[in-house]
Amino acid sequence: MSFFSAQVSTVKQQEQKESSYSPVIEEPFDKVLAKDKTLKNEIMKRQMDLLGDRYDLTKKVSSEVTMSNGKTVVRRPTARLKGVTWDQLAMMTPEEIKEKGIFPYLPLPHPNHPVGGMIFPQTEIKELARLQRFDLDFDLPDHFLPEFPPPIYLTTHKELGDVSQGKMVTIDNFTTCSMAS
């Protein structure tokens, strides 16, 4: 009987363990919608202030270099350095940069981390309206983004060029965006 008691005791201890998952808070959707819409401007301002502090977001593009479908490419480093120049940074070892904490391209936080989720640029939302969020907007300026829709090149048939023909390939049109060009 002591063996059985030990097993029951272990099972009870496992049942009483706290979960590592956060509790799910069930709120009516209309309340969540209203709250998130109210906070949107504040959250987006905070994110844009962070981006503006870390990066020069002005549109300075190359006239000589373009992407496959003609979109211009940003032509210089955009990070705002703290206390060093680009030449000084180039002379440092990775260890020195890490030690001084001056790596210019730190990870960006999600604009609204507690909620999370994907955020899409307007170019994609125009194609797929279901991607529009009511609580957040995409935070990076369009001139920093790759062209959309992205070109598709087949490595085994380079002679075909962009087989997407500048169209977004979906399950509805993948046969028309073919190698027939």
Describe the protein in words.
The chain is mainly alpha-helical. Among the domains are: 26-116, no CATH class; 149-181, no CATH class. 33% of the residues lie in helices and 5% in strands. The chain has five helices and two strands. It has helices at 2-16, 29-54, 86-91, 94-100, 122-127, and strands at residues 61-66, 72-74. A two-stranded antiparallel ribbon has the order 1-2. Strand 1 and strand 2 (72-74) form a beta hairpin. The longest helix is centred in the N-terminal third of the chain and has 26 residues, at 29-54. 1% of the residues are buried. The model has no long low-confidence stretch (mean pLDDT 85).
Strand order of the largest sheet: 1-2
State the end-to-end CA separation. 79 Å
Q: How would you characterize the largest beta sheet? A: 2 strands, antiparallel
Number of helices: 5
Mean pLDDT, to the nearest integer, reads 85
**Helix-strand category:** mainly alpha
N-to-C series of helices and strands: HHEEHHH
**Low-confidence blocks of residues:** none
Q: What amount of the residues lies in strands?
A: under 5%
Radius of gyration: 25 Å
3D shape: extended
**Portion of residues within helices:** 25-40%
Oligomer class: single chain
Number of strands: 2
